[in-house]
Amino acid sequence: MSKRSIASFFTKAPASDQSTSKRVRISSPPREEEPGPPTIHESYPHPISSLPSSLLTLLDAYERQPPRHIKKPDLDVDFYQPFFPPSSAKPLYLFLRKYLPFYRVTYTIKRNDLETTVKTPRFTTVYGVDSHSYFSGSGGDDENRILLDSKTHRQIPPDRYKSCVCRPRPIPQCLEVLKNIVERETGDVFNFILVNYYASSDDSISYPDSDDEQFLGPNPTIASMSLGTTRDFLMKHKNDKNQTLKLPLTNGELLVMKGTTQKKWLHSIPKRSATISGSWTNGGRINITFRNGVEMACTGNYYRYNVGSGPVYRWDDTRSEMVIYEPASRESESESAKAEAKVEGET
User: Fold this and answer.
1) Partner of 229 for a Cys bridge, out of 170, 239, 265, 281, CB 3.0 to 4.6 A?
2) Which domain holds residue 194?
3) Does 212 carry a binding-site annotation?
4) In this structure, is residue 3 part of a structural domain?
5) 3-class secondary structure for 159-188?
6) Is residue 12 part of a domain?
7) Burial profile 328-347: b = 16 or more Cβ within 10 angstroms, e = fewer
């Protein structure tokens, strides 16, 4: 499948906005602008707003410096400081927190005949499908996109993803454009996007954790983008306790982990003693990871542990927190989104 050009994500932009042949360093913040026409799909809990064209321009046009390369035994990391400038990373954080659906997944694990209920210590969501399938069409507001087999290019059998707690979801515009930029800059290809929202200092990822699942391939590359509050990212070698790494990840930075990093190293985002409050982040952090799943088991795993079967959460500006989403009827929401997209396309 060919990649979409960044310019194709503009709904209607001046000619100067559509050129990506010459990228320049831009520091001025975008003017406040309403979201673009939403991405609609029947697998979404609600239509997902698209990035406004002014913000998309800033994200795409930024001239990035070469990454800092971090090399340790069995570790191979490229660190972009920053990947997006604060003038675009801040509104991107606010946009994604406001418009994406999130979940607080609860699941059961069994160890030595003892079952334990685990509540994920952060909000999560996921989009994409493994390399055995792909979505027809190319995004936008096409709610009729279907899953096709990567070899036959025919509609997949209905039981292919029976292990999923929900249907695989196509990547919405607001995330697909980020994927395209990351792919362009790193030279890697991704088919999954996982988003974590750390609401406070109590939200975390604990040791032992690594992304060394076989369904990602033998030496997977994972790109991890940070937005919002700075949090420490800790790494340690699985076998050599003297090999450690601590990276404070701040707004707009990108960490690209390659080679045997996932196989040989563990990582965590520890709890903090206090949350930064009163700022535009509300003490929160968004982490976006880009991955390439090569086995069908990947799809079932990611949706089971990042969507689950619980309620949908949305950000509430009035309460400054995630609240359970109470949708209007599916039909009225879809019609409203279509009308919004039509008006936007005519202006």
Assistant:
1) 281
2) 27-346
3) yes
4) no
5) CCCCCCCCCCECCCHHHHHHHHHHHHHHCC
6) no
7) eeeeebbeebbebbeebeee
Q: Is the peptide bond between 37 and the residue preceding it cis, with omega within 30 degrees of 0?
A: no
300 Cα distance to chain centroid: 17
* pLDDT tens, residue by residue, 32-75: 568 989 999 999 999 999 999 999 999 999 999 999 999 999 99
- The pTM is what? 0.87
Residue 145 inside a domain? The answer is: yes
**Is 222 inside a domain boundary?**
yes
The tokens describing 151, both together, are 């070899």
Model confidence over 141-180: pLDDT tens digits? 567 899 999 999 999 999 999 878 889 999 999 999 999 9
Q: Does the annotation place 289 within a ligand binding site?
A: yes
314 phi/psi in degrees, rounded to 5: -130, 155
Would you give the distance in Å from CA 230 to the centre of its chain?
Answer: 17
pLDDT one-digit tens code per residue, 293-328: 999 999 999 999 999 999 999 999 999 999 999 887
Q: Is 313 helix (H, G, I), strand (E, B) or coil?
A: strand
Is 304 assigned a ligand-binding role in the annotation? no
Is the separation of the CB atoms in 135 and 128 below 8 Å?
A: no
- The number of distinct structural domains making up the chain is 1
